[in-house]
Write a structure and sequence with these properties.
Helix content is 16%, strand content 34%. With 325 residues, it is an alpha+beta fold. It has three domains: 70 residues, no CATH class; 91 residues, Mannose-Binding Protein A, subunit A (Mannose-Binding Protein A, Chain A, Roll), CATH 3.10.100.10; 128 residues, no CATH class. A hairpin with a 5-residue loop joins strand 14 and strand 15. The N terminus is likely disordered. The structure holds calcium ion (2 copies). The site of one calcium ion (CA) has 8 residues, from strand 8.
């Protein structure tokens, strides 16, 4: 009797899972004076974090909480350890225009007492004729140095552009006509840029994004009071008052503060599908290929949607007697 092995169809299902988030938080005003750092620690221990304020809705809801008329810490700060005299690797550290990242070797050549973020609005960097770096207001109009690294390949060559421009205008110019604003990663490159300058101060490609939320919220919502932030006397932490206006204040002063508790519910919706295929589903490459094709077919580009294999118990292969005809 002849036997032949018949492979049963094996079905695999895949699950289409979508996550949706909405911000639901409880607001807590804590009437215990603490420094900003101690307030952050307290909120993280007792609740979720210092309060991040992401919209006018948050301001309205804060109004519903009874608070004394006083300045109270919220979660926004501009940590000097991330950028003062260092290059740093945090969200508000210095970074190069060409890469959006800090230098790998951390090379820096700050002038004494710089960067100081004077007036709380110096987030772009110019180089002096002596080769020293200084943070300045990005809207200041200066000449600038662009660079290219294609001739010879990989080696930076610098070009002084004798046009007055804001830092952003200078960046646009360099990206249009060369590679980018000057990127400087060692002493030799710094000297090369310096040699182009005859008593002029120019923009280079260094900048940073100031202010970040304690809970890493990426909200850009701000509600500064008049003439704030001003960094007066070195103010790097943000407090808000009873009419919901914000100001930077000295982080070491003890103040009441706002915490929040995250009540966000993560909702998961799963859609499972099954299909028949003659493809070899034991091959991981084919599995990936099918997922890619399905992602394209269903136009899945939303980061809240994931498409993944869910392996079901495999039916045993059956050895079946086949009539010998
Ligand atoms: Ca400065
Ligand atoms: Ca201030």
């Amino acid at each position: 009797m002849l036997f032949s092995k018949l492979l049963t169809f094996v079905l695999f299902g895949f699950g289409l899972t979508s996550y949706s988030y909405k911000r639901f938080i409880d607001y807590y005003h804590v009437d215990q004076p603490k420094t900003w750092t101690d307030a952050q620690k307290y909120c993280r221990e007792k609740y979720t974090d210092l309060l991040s304020i992401e919209s006018n809705d948050d301001l309205r809801l804060m109004n519903s909480v009874s608070v004394p008329t006083t300045w109270s810490w919220i979660g926004l700060h501009d940590d000097p350890k991330s950028w003062k005299g260092v290059m740093g690797k945090d969200e508000n550290s210095w970074r190069w225009s060409a890469t959006g990242e800090t230098s790998e070797n951390g090379f820096q050549n700050w002038a004494p007492t710089e960067p100081n973020n004077f007036g709380s609005n110096q987030h772009c960097v110019r180089i002096s004729p002596e080769g020293e770096w200084i943070d300045r207001r990005c809207t200041e109009r200066l000449q600038f140095v662009c660079y290219n690294d294609t001739n010879p390949p990989g080696q930076k060559t610098y070009t002084l552009i004798p046009i007055l421009a804001s830092w952003k205008e200078a960046q646009d110019y360099c990206r249009t006509y060369l590679k980018d604003l000057a990127m400087i990663e060692d002493t030799e490159e710094n000297t090369n840029v310096m040699s182009l300058l005859s008593n002029v101060r120019v923009w280079i490609g260094l900048y940073r994004n100031p202010w970040r939320w304690s809970d890493r919220s990426n909200s850009s919502f701000r509600n500064w009071g008049v003439l704030e932030p001003d960094n007066f006397g070195g103010q790097h932490c943000v407090a808000e008052n009873s009419v919901r206006y914000w100001a930077d204040r000295n982080c070491d002063i003890k103040r009441f503060f706002w915490c929040y508790k995250d009540l966000t519910v993560k909702r998961i919706h799963t859609v499972s599908m099954k299909f028949l295929t003659s493809a070899d589903l034991s091959d991981p490459d084919i599995n990936i290929q099918i997922l890619q094709q399905l992602s394209e077919r269903f136009n899945i580009s939303d980061s809240n949607v994931t498409l993944k294999w869910k392996t079901e118990p495999r039916k045993l292969d059956k050895e079946t007697d086949e009539p010998n005809r």
